[in-house]
TrEMBL record:
Name of the featured protein: SET domain-containing protein
Species of provenance: Wallemia ichthyophaga
Skewed-composition ranges (Acidic residues): 365-383
Organism classification: Eukaryota, Fungi, Dikarya, Basidiomycota, Wallemiomycotina
Pfam families membership: SET
Domain SET: 115-229
Gene Ontology MF, one: histone H4K20 methyltransferase activity
């Protein structure tokens, strides 16, 4: 099995594209706009040009996530009862409604306290693309040879003709190629896992979903990383900008140290090479990778200059968080929302004891705690 993961917008569907691909794209676009963008203030790439106007429901949704994150089945139901979502689904067929509910659960699992990772802003790649890029960051230690709990994506098959449409458009999504089961696209939180030549996870496929499994221990604060293939970024990944290539002077960094000219510093040289790669095609017959634009995708680049700056003084004071502070606050927006949802500092998800036993919240929190005890395993989708 070979893996190719690409992050950019799917082309508009036509008569030649499958209903399942079209439907999954619509579901993912709407659900990610609600549970990723609206809640966390992000702007992730969408596979389809469709979304609901739920800005007026932002506080309602965040409060709902805060109350029901211990029981994602109840959280699913609460979200489905929102007027905008009910009106949207009312016009859809039964199969679409079923797909929407299943895919919604893939995303609501992100908020369960047992989930050991979060979708986070990727400052490293964004410093080069000047666009918002994202990654998966571990919020707990994850042992080796262990499924990354609740890190899922929904699979749908695509035909060779649909595959060619994606190739011709130079606008792929997350693609999984297998000699035994054909080509599939997967959408969901797992698609935010970036590439590194020294990856710490690999994909595991079930009937309708994929999940990530660790191949070595991942520490709290580490990025969850896949390997997209040995030739994904050119022959022998010679154009790869991952963190491991930077540390080992490999890939795109192989000849960086030869830049001694004052007028051509290493940073500028690598940025020029990166921008050149954005405009080029990277094709490989070994992993079915196709032309892609990294300016629209997620990878794992860090700022190429290690010079000290005053940036640290502007960053959130929470451990492992590298987001910028809110005005007149020691925390960033992400940490502020995290505190609203979990009543705790990022990245802790268990509620503090003094919060659980306050008189006003005792009944609700006791119920949620009981649900958490009973549903930790049931909330993890597996087949």
């Amino acid at each position: 099995m070979m893996v190719a993961v690409v992050h950019s917008s799917l082309p508009r569907t036509s008569m030649s594209t499958s209903t399942s691909l079209d439907h999954l794209s619509q579901c993912d676009s709407i659900i990610s706009s609600i549970l990723i963008d609206l809640v966390w203030g992000f702007n992730v790439v969408k596979p389809a040009q469709c979304r609901l106007d739920l800005g007026h429901s932002k506080d309602t949704i965040i409060d709902m996530v805060s109350r029901l994150n211990y029981n994602t089945a109840r959280l699913d139901q609460g979200l489905l009862e929102l007027t905008s979502i009910k009106d949207y689904l009312r016009r859809k067929r039964i199969l679409f409604k079923s797909l929407f509910k299943d895919h919604l659960h893939v995303y609501t699992l992100l908020f369960h306290p047992s989930t050991p990772f979060e979708v986070c802003f990727n400052r490293r790649l964004s410093s080069l693309t000047h666009k918002e890029e994202y990654s998966l960051i571990a919020t707990k230690n994850i042992p080796s040879n262990t499924p990354v709990k609740n890190c899922l994506a929904t699979l749908t098959k695509i035909t060779p003709k649909q595959d060619q449409i994606l190739t011709d458009s130079n606008n792929d999504w997350s693609v999984l190629t297998s000699l035994s089961s054909g080509t599939r696209i997967f959408l969901g939180p797992a698609r935010f896992a970036n590439h590194d030549c020294n990856n710490n996870c690999q994909l595991q496929r079930t009937k309708d979903h994929i999940n990530l499994v660790t191949i070595r221990c991942i520490r709290k604060g580490d990025e969850i990383l896949l390997n997209y293939g040995p030739h994904y970024f050119g022959e022998n990944n010679e154009k790869c900008f991952c963190r491991s290539c930077e540390a080992g002077c490999m890939g795109a960094f192989r000849h960086a140290n030869s830049a001694n000219s004052v007028n051509s510093p290493v940073d500028n040289q690598l940025r020029t090479r990166f921008n050149s790669y954005i405009r080029s095609s990277t094709n490989s017959s070994t992993n079915h990778s196709r032309s892609r634009s990294l300016s629209s995708g997620s990878s794992s680049l860090t700022p190429l200059s290690s010079a000290p700056s005053c940036l640290d003084e502007m960053l959130c004071q929470n451990n492992h968080c590298t987001n910028e502070k809110l005005p007149d606050s020691a925390e960033c927006y992400t940490c502020d929302i995290h505190r609203r949802i979990y009543k705790n500092s990022w990245p802790m998800r268990s509620r503090p004891v003094d919060t659980i036993h306050t008189p006003t919240n005792q009944n609700q929190d006791s119920e949620d705690s009981a649900v958490s005890e009973d549903s930790t395993d049931s909330d993890f989708m597996s087949e």
